Structures are given as C-alpha cells and as structure tokens.
TrEMBL record:
Coiled-coil regions listed in the entry: none
Gene3D superfamilies linked: Ribonuclease Inhibitor (3.80.10.10)
Name by which UniProt lists this protein: Uncharacterized protein
Region (Disordered): 52-79
SUPFAM superfamilies: RNI-like (SSF52047)
Amino acid sequence: MRPKSKYKWVAKLLNRVPPRAKTKNTIKTKPAVKPRRPVRLKLKLKIKLKFRSKSKSSGASDEEETNASKVKKVTKGPDKHKIGSYGAIAIFRALRVNRTLLSLCLEYVAIDDSAMSALAAALRVNTALTHLSLVGNRIGAAGARDLADALEDSPDSMLIDLNLRDNRLGAQGAEELGRALRENETLTQCDFSWNQMGPQAALGLLSALRDNFALRELCVYGRDLAKDGTHYLANLDYDSAKRIVVALRHVNESFAVVRLSGARAVLPIDKMKTSRWIHLVDRELVELDGLVIAGLIPRNNMLLSLDLHDNPGLRRAAVLELLSVIRCCPTLRDVDLTNTGLFPEAGESVGELVGVNSTLETIKLHETVFSVQQLRGNRRAGEVPEVMAFSVASKHFLDRWILAKCLAVNRLTQEVNELRLPATSSSTKSAALVGVAANEKDHRDLITVNVCGRPLELYEVAFLGKKMLHHLHLGRVALNSCMLDGAAARALADGVRNHATLHTLELENNPLGPTGGQALAECLAVSSALTYLNLSWTQLGDDGVMAFREALERNKSIERLDLRGNELRVRGVVALAEGLRRTATLRELHLQWNTVSPAGAEALAVALEVNQSLTLLDIEHHTMGARGAAAFASTLARNKHLEHLNMCGTDSDDALDAGPGIGSKQAQRVAEALTNSNRSLRILHIGANRIDADAAARFGELLKFNTSLVALDLSRSGLDAKKAPRFFACLSVNKTLERLNLAYNRIGNEGLVACTRALETNRTLRELNLAYNGMTEEPLAVLAAKLHAPKRPITPTLEWLCLTGNSMTERTRQEFLALPQNVIAIELQDKGDEETEDVDV
C-alpha cells in the first residue's frame, strides 16, 4: 500500500539531502566560496498527547519511577495528530537511501506492527543510523519478530541504541528480541521496560547476554496492568532473584549495567565483580535488587566497602541475605546499611550475623558505627584493650542487638569462662590478674562500657550481668538513663558482686526504687573492687538506703558514693551517718537534693567527728536550720580531715520555696571555727542560707587569717554596699583564695570600687563572680579601662570574671568583650538568655 500524499514531503526531504562529498577531488573554482560540508540531520517527530487519565507530575523524570502502576494512555477521538504506521513506513523507506541521519525518535506516534517490516528492510541497508527510539507505540510480538530478524542479519548496521520502552512486546516479543541479541554485534544499550513481558521473558533476555559481547546496558523493569485490568504483570519478581543471579554471573565481561526494578535502580554489574568500593546510595533499590547484589558480591575478591544507605525498599530478606554473604567476602571491611527498611523482628538475626563475622571491621545501621572486631575482643598480639563507649538511642533496636551479640562472643569473655585460677601465683596469667586487682588506682588498661541513654529490657540487663560484666579487663560500666527497675538492678548486682576489676558503676536517673537500692547495697557489701557507685536520682527513698549502713561498714574499697535526689529523710540520712562512722575508705559523700533535717545534720556532724577518711560532703538544698548548723560548727572546730563542704541552702527567690537556712548567728560560728581552729577545709559553699550583711562581712575577717581556704561561695548572702568595703579590704591581704562567688548580693557601686581596689593588691584570685549585684555604668567602665591598661594594675592571675545582670552601656559592654579570651574570660549574659537571643535572630 502506498503512503498517503501528506507524508510524501518527508521522503522528498530525505532524498534531497546530497551524499557526502569527497574532499580530496574537490576543485576550488571560487576562492571566496567555501566548499559545502556534508549535512547530518537529526529527525525527531514527537506528538503531544492529551490523556484522559491523570498525567505525571512535572518533577518526575520517568513515569515508571514514581507510579506503582502504569497509567494507560487513552487519546480523544481518532489519531489524526499522529503520523501512525503509514507515516512511519514513509520515513522507514526513506532511511533505505539516506546516509546522513544519525538519530531517529518516533515516540508516542501510534506505530504498530505493520510498519516494522519497512523498518527491518531499512536497517538491513542503512549504515548511518545509530540511535532509534520508538517509545510509547503499539509494537507487539509480530513487529518484534520483524525487528529481530533485521537486527540478527544486518552486517552493515551501525545501530547502537534501541529504545522500545512502553510498547506491547509481551513474552513472545521478548523471546524474539533475545534471539536477536545473541547474534547482534553493534547494540550497546537496549531499553525493553514496561512491555508486559513477565519474569520468564525477562530472564530469557538476560540469558541471551551470555553470547553477546557488545551490549553494555539493559533495562527490563516495569509493572504493567493486565489487559483485563484485574492484576499487575511485573517483568521481574522476588522469586526470580536466584535465576537472575545465575544469569548475571555468566554474562560477558563487557556487560556493565542492568536496571531490574526502576530507572534509578542502577546495578553496576561490572563493578560488583571487580571493584573495591560499591556505593549505591539513594538509588530506590528494592528487595529484588538487594538479593541480586547479595548473589554477586561473593564473586568479588577485592571488595573493601559496601554502601547501600538510604534505600528503604531493601527489606528484611534482602538485608539478611546481604549480611549472610558477608561471611563469604574475606576482604570486606566496611558496611553501611543505614535506612534500609528493616523491622524490629530482624534485630536478633542481624545481631547474630554481625556478631559471628570474623573479618568485618565496621558496620552502620542507624547512627552508631560499630567496630565489630573490637566488640568481639579480637585484638592483635600485645595490644591493650581500649575504651569502648556507646550511646545508642532507644529507637535503634538493630544497634542494640549488634552490641549485645558481639559482646556475647567476645573472646576475652570466653577466656574468663574457661579460666580457673590456681591456688599459687606461679602462673603468669594469675600473677597478672592479681597485679591488676591489687593496684586499684591504675585503670589505664581497663575497658569502659557506656550504653547510657537508651532503655534496656530485663533480658538485656541479665545478659550484661552474666556475660559482659565477667570481662577480665572491664573497669567502668555506665548505664545512666536506661529505665532500669528493681528487678534489673538485682540482675545487674549479681554480675557486679564478685567482679575483680570493675571500679566504677554509674546508674544515674533510673527508677531502681527501694528494691534496687537494697540489691546494690548487698552487692557493695561484698565487692572488693568497686570504688565509685553513682545512684543519684534513682528513687531509693529511706527504705532503699537502710542497707548501706552495713554495706559501708563491711566494704573496704568504696571511695565515692553519690545519692543525690533520692528523697531521703531522717531515717535514711541517719542510717548513712551510722555507716559513715564505721567506714575507713569513703572519701566523698553526695547528698544534694535530699531532706537533710536538723536530726540528720546532727547525725552527720557526729559521724564526722569520728570518721577520718571523708574529704568531701555535699548536702546542698538541706533543711537543717540553726540546730543542724550549730552541730556542724562544733564539728568543724575539731575535724582535721574534711576538705570540701557544700552546705548551700536553696537558690530559689520564692519565699514559699526557700528553706530555713542556717541563719546569721550559726554562720558566724562556722566562720569563727574556720578562723581559730580548722586548718583542713579548702572549699566552702555556704550561700543561700539567710545570712545578713554582718555575717557575710565576718567571712571577710576569715579571709584575713585563714591560710587554707581556696574557694568560698557566699552567693545570696545579703552582703550590701556598707559592709562590702570591709569585706574586700580583707580580701586584699589574702594570699590563698582562688575562687570567690558573691552573686546575687547587693554590693552596688561602692562595693565594686572597693573590689577593684582589692584586685590591684591581691595576687591569687583566679575566678570572681559578681553577677546581679546592682552595679552600674561608672565603676564598671573604670574596671574595664584598668583591665585594658598596658600595665594592668588588676591582679594578673584573674582568669574569669562574671558581671551578668549588672547595668552598663553598650560601649562598656564592648570594652569587656574586647578583652583577649586567653588572658581573661568575661561573662556578661546568662547562657539561657544567649540561646534565646540566637533563636530570636
């Protein structure tokens, strides 16, 4: 059938193009006119379609990338705006004589099988065309057969790129094209996606690559709607993964890229076989792609790094298969599977697969990068175990399992389980263990395990107690904010009780309750290695600390005990005081934010008269009143060992929340004791205790004679402008004080003038806090000028000065901020205010 007349212009246009001229025989008759160069045409006929269905979004690059199903295109009325098969036949006939056209694109122009015989005839004789795109037409199995015949028997063809995406090839058409690929020697890129081929047909195409030495890229993805509209036909499915791997293993080395699930899901087959690094980040890979990768990487004998993060389509089966084949990759060192769509149920399997791996170095599934061999205890000969600290979020369930499973097979843990210490110390290993146990202060070779900040289940804590805490070289365990209850504390105590090297146990901010406190007290009573126990904010109550009375008496190693914020009242504090009387090792006792009442304060004061080991006692936010303070004043006159005492009251300005404090009278008694008899106390915090100006000035007299005090806190103590000059006059002659806190007093401008004068004489003060003291511009400007002076009259030892909450101009403020930070640090604003300003900006 002859083509319609309206398409004759196409054939005429192609026939008019002159053949390529031979430049060697060209005779230049006119020098001014250049010879005509051969013309190469690129013909592209694309017709815009109007669809009844929803069109794809402007941001998408390919419709098959973003849509789960293929939208069937339906035109309005007859195809009067498409060239159709008749027009295509005219173009294909012109190709038989054309020698210049390189690329032909006929997309969505309603070409069917009837035009393929003309195309086949053209391809057999055409030697110029290299790129042919027939996307979105109606080419079926018959047309594919004609095209395959031409591709199979076209020795002069130069076609290298064939795009038949979104046609109707089907399984039979794919079989025909597979036959052509076995014989064709020119095609390097083929796109047969979205063609309703089915898994068997797609596998046939992949199998054909075994005999093809030219093809480098093949696309066979797609998930079309069946003709009856009831289900979807996927070119490849999950069950085809093993056969795909077999087919790809046997393709020739020239084959490079395959797309099995989407346009962006590019699998570099050549790199998977030979490259040292495989990075497929954010490629929209699905489970099928992951299984194919897992089947190919064991053949790579040089692979060092595998990075597949940000591919949520890689589900459980794919990731587990990837982790399984890692065992077969002795060279693989680093794996990144962040955001790969695993579920909590896969946690144990993931942990086991990673835990038993003997070659993998690092793996990342969420935010934490795990050093697998370090966790497993595999070290080189002669290496000392390093500190291992992990902070895993509670939502990162996979990281938690990996950590637990790796530590379960830790080599040192296994050595501990098999170790039997002989009675004598002749054994080298035994002698080394005894040496570590004897020298409790040498903790350089001990391991630290820090898993703070993530909730632990009871079985995980039991695992830690039985396995990890039996580690020979374990020195510190930190489980702060892990939501441990009483049962978890008891399970943990079983592992700590007889540990030979564990010196630090931190359980801060866990709801242990009275049961947990009793369990840890019993553990402390028999432990011979524990030196620091942190149980702050663990809701122990009085019942939870009653057992510490006996534990402190029996224990011979504990040095620091932290019980802050445990709602202790009279019974609990008295019990601790009785234990304090009998211990000979405890050096620090922290009881802040507990109700240290007058009776409790008296009990602690009596214990301090007997105890000779305690150097630090912290009872901040107490409620002892004048009665308890009187007991402490008497004790300070006789105690010769206490070095640090924190007896600050409440720092609240609310009268309803403010504690009774110790009052001015008892504060003066404390000052007298430190002036006349006590020579051991070096640090004293006595602020916020309802002290008036006279009592505060009395501490100034203390500075005149005391030679041991290096830090004094008198914040919120009522020191005013009248008594401040007297106080600072005494400071000017002091030769030992290094830190002074006078925040929230009322020294005013007169006090600042006296302070500036004292700083010109004093040569020891390093830190001074004058925040919120009602000072204004003039004396502050004078102080700034003296700090800027070339020969600074202010003491050169001053390193930190706080002037927050005082009134000054912007110029003076900038003068303070211009001071070199390496000389003196100036603080002019609260940290909370600074953060608020940053947010506002």
